[in-house]
Structures are given as structure tokens and as C-alpha cells.
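Q: I have 431 residues here and want to know how they pack in 3D. Can you give me a structure?
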Amino acid sequence: MQTLSIRKTRVAQAVGALALALGATQAFATGFQLNEQSGSGLGNAFAAGAAYTDDISAMWWNPAALAQFPSMQGAAVLNIITPSVKFRNDASLPAANQPLGGDGGDAGGYNFVPNMYLSVPINKDWTFGLGINVPFGLTTEYDDGWIGRFQTLKSQIQTININPAIAWKVTPQFSVGVGVNYQQIDATLTNNVNYSAALLQAAAGAGIAPGSPTYLAIAQATPGLQSKATVDGNDWAWGWNIGFAWDATPQLRLAASYRSEIKYDVQGNIGFENPSLPSTIPAALAPTVNALAAGVNNQALYGRSVTSDITLPAIANFSVLFRVNPQWEIMGDVQYTGWSSIPELRFNASSPPALPPTPLEWDDTFKIAVGASYKVSDQWKARFGLAFDQTPVTNYPTPRLPDSDRWWLSTGAEYKWTKNWKFDGAFTYIF
């Protein structure tokens, strides 16, 4: 669970439907990586990383871990993530011809993230594994009518990753693994569009001078009108991952892994729901306003298809696990995520006008974690972890999926019910 506050000194004025529709594209470039890929590893804040071998979910972090499981194994995990995302108003100004709006409530809510894994030994040296999980995602949704409604209402990003892999035990102490990843990205992004401002912009374009009696009458007759813009996009793409694990001594394991970038050619559409004009418009003014509304409603940008080349980042881990004695293990992990793979968002429209790019300038990041496990008995194991996770967002924050540097505080427990069944539970507070 994490709490993030957005601070803005000004809510920008809306000047037309095109610029506001582009606000819906920003969610593709937020720090939305999901480390929650294992129920047992979560208890250590994933400090074991690529060196982890407590259960088959280890294959997400390092395909070489498959070599540590001589019999068929399966694992199923359900993560419940409850971020708290709240806006704090600091002298915000209303958009043109609009009320200011509320604070949006808590945009976080509940997110359910499943993972499933299976390993099948081929022989004593080779093992096949299959993982299905959600490496990127989460959802934010603000209340209708909030201050930032022209930037975002709902942002939902989902990925599904299918990862077959194979591991080779080169020696009893050293193993390597490699996998391929077939991954889908699917996004639904919504925001309001300042329809009142679009009418005034159209009036100015038609020669009605801003500040003139007619212009002011139009503004007075059409306050608070809003459209709703929706962007949907999806694509499937391929990637790969590789890793090794080395038991340098019976107590010390060193391991490293790498997951490649995944390059998408996202196909999407922009759709709009426009409001009806007020019935209170004076009869003398109605023909002018109706003509302006018809012009706004018929702009070429409505209902257009768009494409975008988006590259999700590479991820690398280096990990150390040390068995102090039969009861205690200590561990550490450094994770690198190459977020600079998305320097900007550039969407190509199927017809004019062209859409300007959205700059991001995200930084590559590191997550550093340390942890320990204590074997209480043959049935019970306790886990602890602490991590620091950098944010890639430095220059262009967005309320869609706001981000910040984060500290993880984790704990968990394992219970071996029988020889073939075990259960893990873990809790992490991210602040």
C-alpha cells in the first residue's frame, strides 16, 4: 500500500479538444512496474531476487532457478495492491468557463494481480518452466468533476506475460536459464474535454472577437459543458530473459538475470462523447451556438485511429544469498529498470491534424533490497525485508499514475502443510 500526493499550483486552461485528448496518452509512461510476482518473495521485499529458490515462482526473477527443482512443481499467487492516490489543492485555477471542481477523492482502490508458475523436469540436468503473470499495470480513477478532470479520470493499464523457459544444470553448483516472453499491453484511458472552451475557440476562429458582446454572450450561455474522451489501445509483442545462478560455496549463492525490452506497435482509437447544448440558450443566439457546436462536433480528430511505438524497459537483477546457519538466511538484491526507453510519447494519427509528442525524459532507476529469513521449525519460516525504490519521474509528473521514491517494509511467513503443499502470506507497506 502506498500513499502518493499530487501537488499542482495551477490547473491549465483548456483551449480545445485536440490538446485535451492528448492528456489521455500520458498513462503509458508512468512508473507502473509491478514487482509483486511471488507470494513468498514479497516477505523479503524481493531481496533474494535472482538468487531466490524457495518455490517455483523464482523463475520470474531468474530462469536458471528452475534447475533447483528436481520434481514437478506448481505455484499460484494472488497479490492485492491498494495504493492511495490523493490530490492536494494549492491555489489551483479553474479551466476556461468551468467550475474549479473537487479534489478527486482517493484514486487508488483495489488492484488484483495474479501469477501462476509450473516446472517440469526433463531429466536430471534440464528443466522446463512456464510462468504467466502481470509485470506492468495498475489502475487509478478519480471522482467525476474533480479539479484535474481535463487531465485524467480513469487510467487502466494491464499486461499479461506468458514466459516459457528452460534451465540447464551445467554442474551441481552452476546453472543457466533462458526464456521467451509473449506479452500483451491493453490500456483504457479517459478524461474530460472542455467543450465550453472548444465552443469559444471555434467562435474566435469564426471571427467573433474575444471580449465582444456576442463572444461574452456565448460564454455566459454555455458554461460548464464537458465532453468525455476515451483512448483504447493494445498490442502483443515478444521479448526474452536469461540468467545464471552459482553456488560459490555451500553457504553463498550469487546470481544475475536480465529481461529484455519489449517493443510494441500499439494500435488504438480516440473516441468522444459530446454534451447536449443547454435549453436555456437565448433564441437569438441559438443559431450561432448551434453552428459552432456542429463545427466542433465534426472535427476530423473525432473517432480517429492512432498508432504508437512504445518500448517497455529492460530489467536486470544482481543478487546474493548467504546461509548463516540452518536457521538464518540473509540476502541482498540490486534491480535496474531502463525507463529511459520511453523518452517521449509520439502518437501517429490516421488523418490530419498531427498530434504533437508528449515529452517524458524519464530516468533509469535502481531498487535496492535487503532481507532475512528465519526457519522457526520444520513447518514454519519467517521472512523480513527492506527496500528503496527510485522513481523514474523527474521532469513531467502526471496525475494519471503519480509516482515518487518509495521505501518498502515487508514481512511474511511460510507454512508447510504437508511434504507437497505449502502456503505463503506476506504484507508490504510502501511509503
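Q: Anything worth noting?
A: The first helix runs from residue 17 to 22. The CA atoms of residues 174 and 246 lie 5 Å apart.
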